[in-house]
Specification:
8 helices; DUF1275 domain-containing protein; two-stranded antiparallel sheet; transmembrane; mainly alpha; 215 residues; membrane; 74% helix; Growth Hormone, Chain: A
């Protein structure tokens, strides 16, 4: 694993990437998400209540793909040791590149499928004991921790322990802003930039892993 500071930097970079992709997906899908499945679950319930079956099925498909991506992340990262993060990132980049190519081939539905799989997989990046250690594509738990750690600070605990969570949340918001702006200019071709960013982060993470001394 990387150092604590490097882990924070990596987490913020990936949270920004998730926000970027989710901004793209949210606009393209007219209010559904490609990385925020809590929102899609709420929308699914609303759509069922409204008997909007086509939209409900679309939301359910996105949720299913996300779960599949999360499982794929577990499979790819299993037993990889210090190399698991960059291998996961390389797989994520490959999925995003596949999505971008699909769009160029006039298959936007496949583009959406690929990026939802990539977002599910991303949550395996900081997996510990079979569970996601740091949430990268959803921020509810992060915001809860900000509130809790602020309360701890006011009671005499660590004064700045909430800052990393604030940075993680801010990175996702900033990514969503950028993703929305790029989508409005390039439509789903904006996924190319996400794929390039994922590949760059994978290269940096691989270099850091290879430089670590063998244990």
């Amino acid at each position: 694993m990387l150092t604590v500071k490097s882990n924070l930097a990596l987490a913020c970079a990936l949270s920004a990437l998730a926000g970027y992709v989710d901004g793209i997906g949210f606009i393209h899908l007219g209010g559904l998400f490609v990385s925020f499945m809590s929102g899609n679950s709420t929308r699914l319930g609303v759509m069922i209540a409204e008997l909007d079956w086509p939209k409900a099925l679309e939301a359910l498909k996105l949720i299913g793909l996300f779960v599949l991506g999360a499982g794929l992340g577990n499979f790819v990262g299993y037993g990889r040791g210090k190399h698991r993060q960059w291998m996961l990132l390389l797989t994520e980049a490959a999925l995003l590149f596949a999505g971008a190519i699909a769009y160029q081939l006039d298959a936007p539905d496949i583009t959406i499928m690929a990026i939802v799989l990539a977002m599910g997989l991303e949550n395996a990046m900081f997996q510990t004991d079979g569970t996601a250690g740091i949430a990268l594509t959803y921020m509810t738990g992060t915001l809860v921790r900000i509130g809790q750690l602020l309360a701890v600070a006011l009671q005499g605990g660590p004064r700045w322990a909430w800052i990393p969570n604030l940075l993680l949340w801010s990175a996702m918001v900033a990514g969503a802003v950028i993703g929305t702006l790029v989508y409005l200019r390039f439509a789903l071709a904006a996924v190319w930039f996400a794929a390039g960013a994922a590949l760059l982060i994978a290269a940096i993470t691989a270099l850091a892993a290879w430089r670590q001394p063998a244990r």
